[in-house]
Automatic annotation (TrEMBL):
Gene3D superfamilies: Ub domain-containing protein, DC-UbP/UBTD2, N-terminal domain. Residues 1-29 are annotated as: Disordered. Residues 17-113 form the DC-UbP/UBTD2 N-terminal domain. Residues 10-26 have a biased composition (Basic residues). It holds the Pfam family UBD. This is DC-UbP/UBTD2 N-terminal domain-containing protein.
Amino acid sequence: MGSCGSSHVKPNRTGKKIIRKPKPWKHPQPITRSQLMQLREEFWDTAPHYGGKKEIWDALRAAAEADLELAQVIVDSAGIIAQNTDMTICYDESGTKYELPKYVLSEPRNMIRFC
């Protein structure tokens, strides 16, 4: 006998969005890996000055630099609410908004690669 439809429900469903890589994107101009890394460093160095908590910015950076499984753990542990699954817009538990550019989350399609 058993309950109708119970096998279709995932037991550890939390209602939180699962983190994913951003959709492919294109930088306005082709850039090298070193230029991309410089853009990322500049963003992370200045991001806390625009508001929010330093510990949330630190968690977002750690998540952005981690593989997807670890990123999910970091976001969940820090109490970060991802509005978008690609983490471009997030909130902390007090409702403060954090916006992340795609260039800190993934590589552009038009990155110059050296052989």
